[in-house]
């Protein structure tokens, strides 16, 4: 276990160094997020729909798209010089490869969200100061689920044709249940309603994380086996 | 008799029985007071919906066992079940709006139960697209199994989110053991139609399985 | 010790390994010659633990930790420097942290890369990348070396140098397995020679006093059928 975590950390750190050295991916993802937020502002009739009514949906649709964009590149890094083969030959468990990728993806998406959230607050004038803690909590809860499934799928798709197109098609049906939950909880938070109203959704989000983290950890070896 | 022929005849029997069930549904089963004759579509709609979901669960179960045994027959069954599930989902998604137009006055109301079938439909499409995108047979079977298992695990989450996201849809009335609110004659008709859909599922899967096997032999030989 | 017993593997109907058995002890170098698609790479991947064979067993004394792998791809990340790459792989191979730097420096020096160590891998020529790949494969002092088409892309001088290095490594009590479609390449390093065709070893024998020319001649008769 300790060994698995150590290897996972080594891998994740390597990924992040690569990511922040090349910067193209992370910058594109951040700019993309800002652009989607902008599209949402102009993609509504301001006289008919107040931005605040749409705010939870805007936030989550944006984050969902950004996460998907980020996940595509996770295993692409390993195709260079067939590094993935090297990882599989190395005396490390398959689980540590999955967890390493998962951790790097989580950091990547978290960075995008950390830039996206203030922009969202700024663009749509959303009062979040009172609920910032719980809001960050729900973002973390939903993001873990998104990334757990997405990391598994991107490992599988990296060597298939049309990977960039396939990932959203396979992933979106899986993201909609946690997306629904995240939107509901966010809406209650922004309306200053008690969280007990959405206890069911919170349980759903937590159960989703547990189920898909476990499942992805168990299934990952089958996606890299030859 | 070959598997393909057996599947063919099972399907024929299923279709004839389906005709029989509809005779019973139209002639011998009372018309629902509020919904009128449109309710008759339920004898097609509900069993197809149930089998859309069962087919996904069977894909998942076959996938789990496949990853342990690596038996190509399980993979072939999963593929067949997924294709039949896609067809059943299409039936649900066509009959649902027809009923909805009559009773709710709108084709598509984003009703949660139809929406969840739509989820399953997309899940199936994704599964079949993935199978199409992977060239190597071994990898295709493994990837499909991984997706199939995840799909099965997603079903309860779809239900749960649907339940939490209450909508216009009539609450399920068939499997409510405490107070069966469906009149006995309707229940019998419904059970019959469910049995018929089971026959149809088996027939379709047998044919699709035989086709899959023939295709593999064609590829290799 | 490296043992393969009754290895079988097929991709669809294509037989990659068909009843392959052999035993190598330290100091032995096995050269496997065969046409493309004969299953040489599959065999190496099975020995490296990358592919689980459908039939038969392998045993490598010391397990995956004892195996060094050099393929025709370097398994290095282009945007990391040579040193960063080596440190990363050393960590995955559990080279103890206090020793890592020294071990990496030594490897760099031996491969003549000491003054290029802080350049990103993608800035190096093919020959230098191959040297870095060799340094990478030797970091954990493997007792078994698996080489898949290691001469691909090397110019004459680099290939000669690589041959000298291999002779040194093989002499130091290692087991080396080398696979190439270029018949005769590396014959002088081998203690044993195998011809592989359609997954089978059509011959496996000690080299004895055979020269490269004699081996090529024999290969023509055995594999190409005249």
Overall tally of structural domains of chain B: 1
| Helix and strand pattern of chain C | EEEHEEHHHEHEEEH
**Low-confidence sequence ranges of chain B:** 175-180
Rounded to an integer in angstroms, the radius of gyration calculated over CA atoms of chain B is 19 Å
Number of strands of chain B: 0
Determine the fraction of residues in helical runs of chain C and give it as a percent range: 25-40%
Count, helices of chain B: 6
Helix/strand/pairing category of chain C: alpha/beta
Strand adjacency order, main sheet of chain C: 5-6-7-3-8-9
CATH class of the domain at 1-61 and 144-153 and 168-226 in chain C: Alpha Beta
Greatest interface? A-B, 32 and 26 residues
Strand content of chain B: under 5%
Mean pLDDT of chain C: 88
Task: Compute the number of helices of chain C.
Answer: 6
What do you see in this structure?
The complex is a heterotrimer of chains A (226), B (221) and C (226). Chain A is built from nine helices and no strands. The mean pLDDT of chain A is 91. With 226 residues, chain A is mostly helical. Chain A has helices spanning 2-22, 24-42, 51-72, 76-79, 83-89, 94-124, 132-157, 163-190, 199-224. In chain A, helix 1 (2-22) packs across helix 6 (94-124), helix 3 (51-72) packs parallel to helix 7 (132-157) and helix 3 runs antiparallel to helix 8 (163-190). Chain A has one domain (2-224). Chain B has helices at 3-28, 42-69, 72-103, 112-133, 137-164, 184-220. Helices cover 78% and strands 0% of the residues of chain B. Chain B is an all-alpha fold. Chain B starts with a helix and ends with a helix. Chain B is built from six helices and no strands. Chain B has one domain (3-30, 39-215). Chain C has 226 residues and is of the alpha/beta class. Chain C has a domain at 1-61 and 144-153 and 168-226: 3-Layer(aba) Sandwich (Rossmann fold). Chain C is 34% helix and 27% strand. In chain C, strands 5-6-7-3-8-9 form a six-stranded mixed sheet, sandwiched between helices. The longest helix of chain C is centred in the C-terminal third of the chain and has 16 residues, at 156-171. Chain C starts with a strand and ends with a helix. The relative contact order of chain C is 0.20. Chains in contact: A-B, A-C, B-C.
């Amino acid at each position: 276990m300790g060994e698995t975590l150590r290897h996972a950390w080594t891998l994740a750190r390597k990924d992040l160094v690569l990511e922040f050295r090349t910067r193209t991916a992370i910058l594109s993802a951040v700019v993309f997020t800002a652009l989607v937020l902008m599209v949402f502002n102009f993609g509504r009739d301001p006289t008919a729909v107040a931005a605040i009514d749409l705010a939870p949906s805007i936030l989550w649709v944006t984050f969902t798209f950004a996460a998907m964009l980020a996940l595509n590149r996770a295993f692409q890094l390993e195709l260079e010089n067939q590094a993935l083969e090297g990882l599989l030959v190395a005396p490390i468990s398959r689980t540590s490869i999955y967890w390493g990728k998962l951790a790097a993806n989580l950091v990547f998406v978290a960075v995008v969200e950390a830039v996206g959230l203030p922009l969202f607050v700024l663009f749509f004038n959303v009062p979040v100061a009172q609920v910032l803690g719980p809001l960050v909590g729900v973002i973390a809860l939903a993001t873990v689920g998104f990334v757990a499934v997405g990391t598994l799928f991107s490992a599988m798709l990296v060597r298939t044709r049309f990977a960039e197109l396939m990932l959203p098609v396979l992933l979106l049906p899986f993201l909609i249940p946690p997306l629904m939950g995240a939107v509901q909880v966010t809406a209650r938070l922004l309306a200053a309603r008690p969280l007990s109203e959405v206890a069911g959704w919170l349980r759903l989000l937590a159960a989703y994380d547990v189920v898909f983290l476990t499942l992805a950890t168990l299934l990952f070896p089958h996606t890299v086996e030859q | 008799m070959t598997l393909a022929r057996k599947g063919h005849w099972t399907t024929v029997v299923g279709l004839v029985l389906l005709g029989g069930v509809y005779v019973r549904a139209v002639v011998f089963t009372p018309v629902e007071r509020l919904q009128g004759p449109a309710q008759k579509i339920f004898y097609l709609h509900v069993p197809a919906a149930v089998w859309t979901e069962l087919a996904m669960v069977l894909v998942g179960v076959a996938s789990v066992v496949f990853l342990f045994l690596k038996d190509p027959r399980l993979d072939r069954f999963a593929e067949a079940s997924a294709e039949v599930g896609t067809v059943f989902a299409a039936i649900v998604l066509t009959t649902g709006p027809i009923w909805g137009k009559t009773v709710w006055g709108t084709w598509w109301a984003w009703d949660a139960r139809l929406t969840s079938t739509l989820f399953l439909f997309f899940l199936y499409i994704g599964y079949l697209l993935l199978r199409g995108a992977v060239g190597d047979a071994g990898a295709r079977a493994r990837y499909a199994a991984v997706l199939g298992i995840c799909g099965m695990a997603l079903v309860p989450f779809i239900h749960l989110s649907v339940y939490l996201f209450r909508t216009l849809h009539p609450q399920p009335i068939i499997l409510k053991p405490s107070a069966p609110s469906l009149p006995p004659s309707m229940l019998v008709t419904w059970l019959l139609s469910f049995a018929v859909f089971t026959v149809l599922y088996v027939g379709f899967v047998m044919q699709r399985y035989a086709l899959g096997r023939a295709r593999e032999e064609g590829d290799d030989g | 010790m490296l043992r393969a017993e009754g290895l079988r593997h097929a991709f669809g109907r294509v037989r990659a390994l068909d009843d392959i058995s052999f035993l190598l002890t330290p100091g032995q170098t096995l050269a496997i010659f065969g046409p493309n698609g004969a299953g040489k790479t599959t065999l190496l991947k099975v020995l490296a633990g990358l592919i689980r064979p459908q039939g038969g067993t392998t045993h490598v004394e010391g397990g995956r930790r004892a195996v060094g792998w050099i393929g025709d791809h370097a398994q290095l990340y282009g945007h990391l420097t040579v040193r960063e790459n080596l440190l990363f792989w050393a960590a995955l191979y559990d080279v103890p942290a206090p020793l890592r730097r020294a071990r990496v420096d030594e490897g760099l020096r031996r491969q003549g890369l000491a003054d290029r160590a802080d350049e990103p891998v993608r800035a190096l020529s093919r020959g230098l990348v191959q040297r870095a790949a060799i340094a990478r494969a030797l970091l954990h002092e493997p007792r078994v070396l698996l080489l898949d088409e290691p001469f691909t892309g090397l110019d004459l001088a680099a290939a000669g140098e690589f041959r000298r290095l291999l002779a040194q490594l093989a002499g130091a009590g290692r087991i080396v397995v080398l696979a190439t479609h270029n018949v005769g390449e590396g014959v002088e390093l081998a203690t044993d020679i195998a011809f592989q065709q359609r997954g089978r070893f059509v011959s496996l024998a000690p080299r004895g006093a055979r020269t490269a020319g004699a081996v090529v001649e024999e290969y023509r008769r055995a594999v190409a059928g005249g």
